Amino acid sequence: MVKHNTQVGDMITIEKHIKSTLSPHNDTAETSITTTIITKSYSDADLSRLPKKIAKRIETFKPRSSQLDREQLESAQDPFRGFFTLFWMAMGFYVIQTWSKNLQAAGILFDLSFFRLFSQDAITLIISDLVMVGSMFFSVILQKLIAMGWIRWRYTGMIIQHIFQVSFLFIPIYWTFVRNWPWVQSGFFILHTIAMLMKLHSYSFYNGELSGWSLCLSDLKKEYSNLAGELKKSDNDNDTEKQEHLNELKEKIGQVEGYLASPAKNISYPNNITFMNFVDFLLVPTLVYELEYPRTEKIRPSYVFEKIVATFGTFFLLYVNTEAYIIPVLPNITSSLYNSMLQMLFPFMVNYLLIFYIIFECICNVFAELTRFADRNFYDDWWNSTTWEEFARKWNKPVHHFLLRHVYQYSIESYKLSRRDATFMTFFLSSLIHELVMVVVTKKIRMYLFFLQMFQLPLIALSKLPIIKEKKWLGNAFFWFGLFIGPPMLGILYCREVFLS
């Protein structure tokens, strides 16, 4: 038996069995050649990377609490937990001060014009959002067809998925322009669409990769079965070469089976391709798909109630701050940029902190508790960041994990980019998506946010200077200065574009 291995996308093994018999009438050999071609969806290089890929997957999710969770602060005896209490007391006095000011100026506690703005066309917005989410189940059907062998992920399934994802993004964008929604509705709808698009991409491409490894496992088992059969039929019991190859196949089969199963071995591909599994993924507060996540033992109703109350309470503070200190200033295009910036510094910073708390501490923890999702590490201590690179890693962990797996690592593995080029690609894509949100919200293309976010790259290089590395407080002060200046400046620039038109 002679084997030749070649790789043009796949590994192709050609086995030639040659039987020769001598004719009794002459010395020529009559040769019968049987050729079997087996297409394999793996390579030795791919298999060698499996243990590392499995290790990374296990490290991605583990039971953790969010850092600003009240129970976590109390149980860990955090030395700064008093500042957490002080902040919310300050917010309470802030609201009282605002109400007193409104009563003296206008005779009302707060205006309802902002409420009328974001409640406009609410029923249509809800229906549109439900239709958008419902359309995502197309990917489950596609993955079922791939798992059943009717479609191959490479490249038919991948092309279909890409076409669907492009439609999934741009049809909602078109719909916001058709409905001519105000900036609140447009912003919510496009942000939710992008979040669901990331879930859709992670689910489809992760399972698409697993489908390839499933084919690989099938090929390995066939090869193992054929070789084991040959060894049984062979009269030579000392064929060590074949026995070693059989042992190698057995080890590879174990590696692939390990990758196709969850870390806890409770579920494996393709048993995960169900509608219920997809619904669970839609509800868990993560953008990265896994076969299985760490879970808590039970749902705590009191904890859910606490976080829901905190959500509405924080949103009320957000509403009061926006209504009293931001809405009256931004439409004033006659005021200079400098004066507007001075008025917007603290209101925008307060809004930034409140929005962060609502999303990552309240809403994410509510969904985590309802789904018993145990990994509550939605953010790290981004407030201690000394570089913008550190901030990008820490402040929004769900998006960071998505970009890390599906943009940064994928571009290195698939397109052979260097780490520096992969970092640039990740920042570039993130900046484009952020600017796309502003285009939908303002109905204009101005690229302010895009250029400001890309400007973080030279700032990251600047942060590597020895003086900043040695003096962490200087890097942290530089970071907070940028966070104070950036959001109000962007808000003023974009709002002036809208109101000038």
TrEMBL record:
Transferase keyword on record: yes
GO MF: ergosterol O-acyltransferase activity
Family as reported in the entry's similarity comment: Belongs to the membrane-bound acyltransferase family. Sterol o-acyltransferase subfamily.
Record field: transmembrane: 80-99, 122-143, 155-175, 181-198, 308-328, 348-368, 447-465, 477-494
Signal peptide as annotated in the record: none
GO process terms (BP): ergosterol metabolic process
The keyword Nucleus is annotated on this UniProt entry: no
Subcellular localization: Endoplasmic reticulum membrane
Superkingdom as given in the UniProt entry: Eukaryota
Function text: Sterol O-acyltransferase that catalyzes the formation of stery esters.
Organism: Gigaspora margarita
Mode of membrane association: Multi-pass membrane protein
Active site, per annotation: H434
PANTHER family, alphabetized: STEROL O-ACYLTRANSFERASE, STEROL O-ACYLTRANSFERASE 2-RELATED
Cellular component annotations (GO), alphabetically ordered: endoplasmic reticulum membrane
Name of the protein described by the UniProt record: O-acyltransferase
Keywords attached to this entry: Acyltransferase, Endoplasmic reticulum, Membrane, Transferase, Transmembrane, Transmembrane helix
